[in-house]
Amino acid sequence: MLRTNQKFLDYIQGIYDSPRNQNHIFQKSFQKGQKLLSQHQTTPNVLLIQSGITKCFFNEENDKEFIVEFLGKGEIVGEIESIRQMPCLCSVEAITDDSALVIPSPYFQELLGQDLRLNKLLLEAFAERIVNTSSRAAFQQLYTVEHSLSKLLELQQKQEIQLSKEEMAAYLGISVRSLNRSLKNMNV
Predict the structure, then answer these.
(1) Are 99 and 17 in contact (CB under 8 A)?
(2) Phi/psi of residue 8, each to 5°?
(3) CA nearest 15: which of 28, 30, 26?
(4) Taking the domains of the chain in order of start, what are their residue ranges?
(5) 124 band by pLDDT with thresholds 50, 70 and 90
(6) Could you tell me the strand order of the sheet in which 45-51 lies?
(7) Backbone angles phi, psi at 94, to 5 degrees
(8) Does 2.60.120.10 match the CATH number of domain 2-114?
(9) pLDDT one-digit tens code per residue, 130-173
(10) pLDDT value at position 158?
(11) Which of 39, 77, 122, 140 could be bridged to 91 by S-S, CB 3.0 to 4.6 A?
């Protein structure tokens, strides 16, 4: 439910800490509720979350939000858009105060052309996303909403975050009304 990638963070932090890269990569803070990326808009940067938690989501044509994933430290965003030179597929918003390493797209492209280890880490991150997406789809088909909801409530408690009912429903892919019914059935 909360994706992290310490190995990726350690590697990019090492690149950032190198004196020759400090003019190319910078650190930026984001306040709770601030967007790191906005769906359909272009972004000049790739971001690697250093601390905090974000939500990655789509806004559908009917103004409904669908939360794809919660992302934590070490997760990279904007890389697909940089590689494909396209507008953002989805929005990423801070749900806690966050910090990120910001890599301008031209420099990210340069690193990809030179750094095999970065390419390997990126391929591993892409593979992990495919596995997680497939697993989540299967999980939602095989288990009840109440089971998924209990896992989401555990995440909130463990990470000490508060999600709105709208956010919980958007992550579970259900209506707020269905969420309320499930919460009532669980005596929460």
Answers:
(1) no
(2) -65, -45
(3) 26
(4) 2-114
(5) very high
(6) 26-30, 98-104, 45-51, 76-77
(7) -70, 130
(8) yes
(9) 988 887 777 666 667 887 888 888 888 888 888 888 888 888 88
(10) 85
(11) 39
